[in-house]
């Protein structure tokens, strides 16, 4: 399945946002802010870019995706449900005991999840391993890894960045969800990321800056990444935390909390 129509992809993104809010509301917990900021990125990956098959989720030849900012699992589950990897009904089990849909993604519970994540800073190292394996075995699959901008304040990320360029992992595409907010404040307040593009360039990456809510720019970015040889690519996607729900946008307080009944109704109305 490859959807190329921008309007169609925007419609899917809207449905994914509804799925995110429904999961968090039903569970009375979760992370809506950073899930809503990466919605279009995931939509483009899962409906336009990645070579995946919902009927064979463990196909060795599939492209891999690592949601390194694992707290945003609702966005990934919402996407997997729309793409047919799981039943939509299953979204209601998010964060329940014994559910396949744990608060943070668990690859041992759910086919379609390529890596267990949640402890920030580790995903890029694993993605490196996958990309290196694909190259050594001539498997041909690509690896995508999504990082949060708060997450990249972890030192392990920069060690992994050096390794990715040392091994010329041009089959690796990192996406930075650059929404400017962290768990309880701005990323700049916690530990500044000034000259973000220069930082990644100096670590040996090909850098592409996009508006992370613009489907066409995202598709162009991923296509350019595929054509880039000899080095890994990072797509730095400028986004808005809480995108799509007026009272959640750009508010750190919506990093990890559920809406009240009244807020839920307003949110769903805004997504109509
Ligand atoms: C190693 C580790 N330290 C701390 C946390 C707690 N934590 C969860 S989310 C978060 C902030 C992440 O910010 P960012 O990467 O910008 O995520 P986004 O804004 O996209 O949700 C923190 C500190 C964690 N999950 N793992």
Description:
This protein has helices at residues 6-27, 32-37, 39-49, 73-83, 123-136, 155-166, 187-191, 196-202, 215-227, 261-270, and strands spanning 64-67, 143-148, 172-178, 206-211, 233-238. With 272 residues, the protein is α/β, with parallel strands linked by helices. The protein has one domain (6-270): Rossmann fold (3-Layer(aba) Sandwich), CATH 3.40.50. Strands 1-2-3-5-4 form a 5-stranded parallel β-sheet, with helices on both faces. Helix 1 crosses helix 4, helix 3 (39-49) runs parallel beside helix 4 (73-83) and helix 3 crosses helix 9 (215-227). The protein is globular, with a radius of gyration of 17 Å. The mean pLDDT is 97. Residues 31, 33-34, 37, 69, 71-72, 118-121, 148-151, 177, 179, 181-183, 241, 255 line the site of thiamine diphosphate.
List descriptors.
five-stranded parallel sheet, 5 strands, globular, binds thiamine diphosphate, single chain, 272 residues, alpha/beta, Rossmann fold, 11% strand
CATH class: Alpha Beta
As a percent range, the share of strand residues is 5-15%
Low confidence ranges? none
Cα-to-Cα separation, first versus last residue: 25 Å
The hetero molecules present are: thiamine diphosphate
- Count of DSSP-assigned helices: 10
């Amino acid at each position: 399945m490859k959807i190329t129509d921008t309007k169609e992809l925007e419609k899917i993104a809207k449905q994914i946002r509804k799925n995110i809010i429904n999961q968090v509301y039903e569970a009375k917990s979760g992370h809506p802010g950073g899930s809503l900021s990466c919605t279009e990125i995931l939509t483009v990956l899962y409906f336009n870019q990645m070579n995946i098959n919902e009927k064979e989720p463990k196909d060795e030849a599939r492209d891999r995706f690592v949601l390194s900012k694992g707290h945003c699992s609702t966005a990934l589950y919402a996407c997997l449900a729309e793409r047919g990897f799981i039943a939509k009904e299953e979204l209601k089990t998010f964060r329940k005991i014994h559910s396949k849909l744990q608060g943070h993604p668990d690859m041992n519970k759910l086919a379609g999840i390529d890596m267990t994540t949640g402890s920030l800073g580790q995903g890029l190292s694993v993605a490196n391993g996958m990309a290196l394996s694909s190259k050594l075995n001539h498997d041909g699959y690509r690896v995508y890894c999504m990082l949060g901008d708060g997450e990249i304040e972890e030192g392990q990320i920069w060690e992994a960045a050096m390794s990715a360029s040392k091994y010329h992992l041009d089959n690796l595409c990192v996406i930075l969800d650059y929404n400017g907010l962290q768990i309880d404040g701005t990323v700049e307040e916690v530990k500044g990321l000034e000259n973000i593009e220069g930082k990644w360039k100096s670590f040996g990456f090909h850098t592409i800056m996009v508006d992370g809510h613009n489907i066409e720019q995202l598709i162009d970015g991923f296509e350019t990444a595929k054509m880039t040889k000899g080095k890994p690519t990072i797509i730095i996607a400028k986004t808005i935390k809480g995108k799509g729900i007026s009272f959640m946008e750009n508010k750190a307080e919506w990093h990890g909390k559920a809406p009240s009944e009244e807020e839920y109704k307003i949110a769903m109305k805004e997504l109509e």
